[in-house]
Amino acid sequence: MVRGIIRLFILVFSISFLYGNITVCYSNTEEQHPSAKRVGVLYFEDNSRFDSSTGCGCVPNFIGRIFSTKKMWDLEVGFQTMLNRKLAETVVYVPVSQDELLDAMAELTIPRHRLKKLNQEQRSALAKHLNADILVLGEIEKFSLSRMKANASRSLRESGREAPSTSITASYMTGVGVMGYRHRALVKLNMEIYDDSGNEIATFPVTSTRYHSLAGTQVSGFQASVTETGSEMRFGQMSEKHGKNTRPIVKPTQLNKIKFASPEYDTTLFGMVTNDVLIKVVKGLRDSYGPNFITPWEVEVTTEENEKEVKQVSDKPIKITYVDSENPDLIYINAGSARGLAINQKFAVFTDGKPIRDIDTGDILDYIPVKIAIVSVIEIRNDRLSIVKVLEKSRDIKRGDFLKVFTTDGVEKEE
User: Using CA atoms, how far apart are residues 273 and 22, in angstroms rounded to an integer?
Assistant: First the structure.
């Protein structure tokens, strides 16, 4: 009799625990854009021959192989990570996380190198397993940085006229130098897009090129330089670091210290052209599959309907919309300039804790919020998207966790 009661208690407890877990998973589902589509970026194949062991690819490969054998920049993983970020910035496209993709590959026994060779039936099974509306594959055909340089110099001698009241003649000699260089970064991709049934929607090439040039003239101590970002004049030795204009990083010694797909990578000429080409990929996805929307990188014409939509968005709670598995410090939230966010503004991050149940029915009414982190805004991408960095945390932050404004007295309030 006692054993029977114990077994019954264990059974009831197990059912209650399972029900609670199912409800927790459901409650963590974030409110999405009404036209949101889940996108699984499966694989990028690198056929660019960018195999320099020095990382940036600016040192000839045979020299790199002599001094090192470790490849620093993994383009296949890097392009996948950066495209997921661009998709998250749209709010309309929800990228499948790397963990979700790895779990699905493990359950379906698909090795990474086979992702590009799946047939229609296998793609359909993978899409259903990921609950993805779209599957994307890419090929990196070209990824290069080239430099051209030219310079010339000569000496000038000038003799002065004799002054009427003296016999002194003045003369001077100075050097004149003209120099210039031009960097070109080029990325070319071939993209494949499939729907959730595994059928091909579109294939298209995407190419982007960025230039960085500097032309300067030096006459003795006076120097003038002109770049694509502006011009400057000064006395003294000319330095590429000098000047008010920010120039993209192109030097191999600097590039070799930068991790691919990191925030610092975006400040390089390589990073700029990579972001350019991935923006074109997102637009190509929109144009070939849909839905029709204005991306964050296009100018939107303000209408009463747009203003109403922005107001509706501003009334929703601020939540974590994407966590970058490659760079955990890069966390995207579904709020931006439309919510009046400011750089360095702090938020407390909360997740769902223990459930609050109805005393009579046992139904879950809500969850006790648990504070797990404090974050600060580091970049406002557009009216609906910002990036925050973690200042402190007690557990990992996940998609769907919500934010409250953090005040100096430690009391959080709703935004």
Answer: 44
pTM: 0.62
Name which of 281, 227, 224 is nearest 84 in CA terms: 281
Residue with tokens 């144009």: 287
Range 120-124 contact pairs with CB under 8 angstroms and sequence separation of 24 or more: 120/197, 120/198, 120/199, 121/198, 122/198, 123/194, 123/198, 124/196, 124/197, 124/198
Number of Cβ atoms within 10 Å of the Cβ of 113:
9
Strands 200-219 and 134-159: unpaired
Q: What is the DSSP string of 248-301?
A: -B--HHHHTTS-TTSGGGGGBHHHHHHHHHHHHHHHHHHHHT------TTSPPP
Instruction: Name which of 36, 19, 64, 87 is nearest 284 in CA terms.
Output: 87
SS (H, E, C) 177-198: EEEEEEEEEEEEEEEEEEECCC
CA distance 408 to 198: 52
pLDDT band at 400 (very low <50, low <70, confident <90, very high): confident
Full strand arrangement of the beta sheet holding 222-227 = 93-95, 37-46, 134-159, 171-195, 200-219, 222-227, 230-235
Residue 245 neighbours by CB distance under 10 Å: 12
| Rounded distance between C-alpha atoms, residue 315 and residue 52, angstroms | 50
For residues 266 and 89, what is the distance between their CA atoms, to the nearest angstrom? 15
Q: What is d(CA 36, CA 291) in angstroms, rounded to the nearest whole number?
A: 8
**CA–CA separation, 378 and 388 (whole Å):** 5
Q: Which residues 6+ apart lie within 8 Å of 196 measured at CB?
A: 124, 127, 128, 132, 133, 134, 135
Residue type (1 letter), 300:
E
Q: Measured between alpha carbons, how far is 192 from 139 in angstroms, rounded to an integer?
A: 9
Average pLDDT of the chain, as a whole number: 75
Domains parsed from the chain with CATH numbers: 316-415 (2.40.10.410)
Q: Which pLDDT score is estimated for 212? A: 85
Which element (helix H / strand E) includes 2? Answer: helix 2-27
Distance, in Å, from the CA atom of 82 to the CA atom of 270, rounded to the nearest integer, reads: 13
Q: What is the distance between the alpha carbons of residues 48 and 21, in angstroms, rounded to a whole number?
A: 47
State yes or no: pLDDT of 386 exceeds 80: yes
pLDDT band at 149 (very low <50, low <70, confident <90, very high): low
pLDDT category of residue 172 using cuts at 50, 70 and 90: very low
Amino acid at 279: I
In angstroms, what is the C-alpha Rg of the chain? 29
